[in-house]
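User: Here's a structure from my thesis project, written as structure tokens. My advisor, Dr. K., wants to see whether a designed sequence matches the one we expressed. Can you design one independently, without my sequence as a hint?
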């Protein structure tokens, strides 16, 4: 009898403890999104925000910051949703956060992306229509840049070439600097870390308009890679061990995932259910970015355009009732 009473007390205690844990997770009214500084995350934020606000009735907010600060904020619960975690760019931080249970991966937004050092295709093949001759027909790989520092001359240092990298606040910038040292390119080139994505684009656009040589970091999906004829320089095939030690390979295949703070599944289960079905592709994302660039509109406008164009896709992420509410706002 005593044993039975003890078991009943134990069960009661565990039930009360479980209830207490559930109640300790406060309800949420404003869902905060991470903006780590590039256009595609802003478009995906806008798509998700519109659906969450109009379909589920939550308020949303976007918080801007560097990759490092926004990832930290997600772990701490100061942010709730990260629509584009480029997992291999922040591999150690991401894997540690998932393993510790601080953040939860919900879906893979897209996985068919690319990143690295690009040159305008006319540098290699020329452009007859623009009267541009090929000035580096043998340029195929990152290592081949060693032959052409004079071609990509640094306007502020005539003794070296210049490679335009990623903003210093982005994790990939450190990877690029290490890669250049590994290949010995740091002896022939200066590495420029622009202050923003916009600065990279401005530098590229200036050179492209004049038909001049340019080499620098970019990635897809972007409106830039959709609008400009660029060639991604080849690199050694990806090898995890080599990449981790020296960055001496092509960039690792990057699953770009939707991740949330650990408490969101309890705080907003309906939103988490929706985000668990969120899936696009490089091409689908690039369409929105190309529209955004060509029409000089904000990410919110590009998101609405994309949702009108691809109603059959995003309506599969939500219930019919939610879809109807959202569609009513797009008319």
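Assistant: Designed independently from the structure alone:
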């Amino acid at each position: 009898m005593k044993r039975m009473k003890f078991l009943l007390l134990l069960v009661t205690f565990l039930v009360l403890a479980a209830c207490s844990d559930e109640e300790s997770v406060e309800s949420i009214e404003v869902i905060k999104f991470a903006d780590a500084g590039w256009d595609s995350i802003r478009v995906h934020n806008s798509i998700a925000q519109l659906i969450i606000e109009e379909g589920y009735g939550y308020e949303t907010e976007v918080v801007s910051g560097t990759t490092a600060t926004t990832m930290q904020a997600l772990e701490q619960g100061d942010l709730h949703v990260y629509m584009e975690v480029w997992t291999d760019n922040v591999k150690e931080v991401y894997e540690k956060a998932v393993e510790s249970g601080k953040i939860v991966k919900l879906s893979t937004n897209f996985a068919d992306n690319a990143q690295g050092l690009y040159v305008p295709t006319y540098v290699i093949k020329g452009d007859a229509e623009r009267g541009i001759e090929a000035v580096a027909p043998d340029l195929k790989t990152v290592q081949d840049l060693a032959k052409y520092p004079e071609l990509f001359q640094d306007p502020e240092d005539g003794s070296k070439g210049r490679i335009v990298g990623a903003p210093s606040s982005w994790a990939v910038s450190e990877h690029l600097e290490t890669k250049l040292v590994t290949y010995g390119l740091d002896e022939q080139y200066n590495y420029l870390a622009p202050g923003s994505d916009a600065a990279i684009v401005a530098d590229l656009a200036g050179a492209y308009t004049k038909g001049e040589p340019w080499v620098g970091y970019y990635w897809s999906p972007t409106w830039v890679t959709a609008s400009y004829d660029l060639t991604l320089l080849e690199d050694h095939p990806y090898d995890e061990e080599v990449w981790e030690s020296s960055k001496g390979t092509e960039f690792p295949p990057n699953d770009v995932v939707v991740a949330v703070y650990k408490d969101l599944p309890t705080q907003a289960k309906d939103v988490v259910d929706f985000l668990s079905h969120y899936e696009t592709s490089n091409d689908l994302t690039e369409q929105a970015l190309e529209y955004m660039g060509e029409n000089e509109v904000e990410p919110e406008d590009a998101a609405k355009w994309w949702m009108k164009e691809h109603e059959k896709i995003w309506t599969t992420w939500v219930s019919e009732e939610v879809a109807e509410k959202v569609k009513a706002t797009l008319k």
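When you compare it with your expressed construct, this may help: The CA atoms of residues 292 and 301 lie 8 Å apart.
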